[in-house]
Design a protein that fits this description.
By secondary structure, this protein is mostly helical. It is built from 4 helices and 2 strands. A two-stranded antiparallel ribbon has the order 1-2. A hairpin with a 5-residue loop joins strand 1 and strand 2. Helix 1 runs antiparallel to helix 2 and helix 3 crosses helix 4 (134-141).
Length: 167
């Protein structure tokens, strides 16, 4: 809030409160029939009302300045947001251009793996002709499970071992 706005609101409020005292004196003098006191009290009431009006105008000017500053601030924030979007768009276009230039990594799959993958994908189609017999692809796909030791060496399990558990 702008200082002019705060000062205007506080001044107007205070003068409206101060206006009550001479108005109460006016009413008391009216009951008694004292015209000179009534005139003097109304003079004070008028002065306080004028001061309250001046402070009200000051508060309005302060609010206009606040609105003007808020508009300018919003405009600069909007310009900043537009600039950020432009920078992000340029960065994205730069990334796209780099990816199109061929500076990216490529993946190559060996012929043996391609055949294994094709065999896996076409395992439902047993009569598919992809250059390899179905026996070779099933051998390539079927692998025995491997167990590793703590040292990282392959431990072969004996298939003839009988394990019995008694409870």
């Amino acid at each position: 809030m702008h200082t002019k706005t705060m000062e205007g609101l506080a001044g107007a409020s205070m003068n409206m409160k101060l206006l009550n005292t001479p108005f109460r004196v006016y009413k008391d003098a009216e009951r008694r029939g004292d015209l000179t006191v009534m005139e003097r009290a109304m003079g004070y009431v008028g002065e306080f009302a004028d001061k309250a009006e001046e402070y009200q105008k000051k508060a309005e000017k302060g609010m206009e300045e606040d609105a003007k500053e808020a508009g300018e601030k919003a405009k600069t924030e909007q310009e900043d947001a537009i600039q950020k979007r432009k920078e992000q768009r340029e960065e994205m276009e730069k990334r796209i251009a780099e990816s199109r230039n061929g500076d990216t990594d490529t993946v190559s799959i060996s012929e043996g793996r391609k055949a294994a993958l094709d065999g896996k994908a076409n395992s439902v189609q047993t009569g598919a002709d992809n250059g390899i017999s179905t026996g070779e692809t099933t051998d390539a796909i079927k692998m025995e499970p491997v167990i590793y030791t703590k040292t990282g060496e392959v431990s072969k399990s004996e298939s003839g071992t009988n394990i019995s558990v008694s409870v």
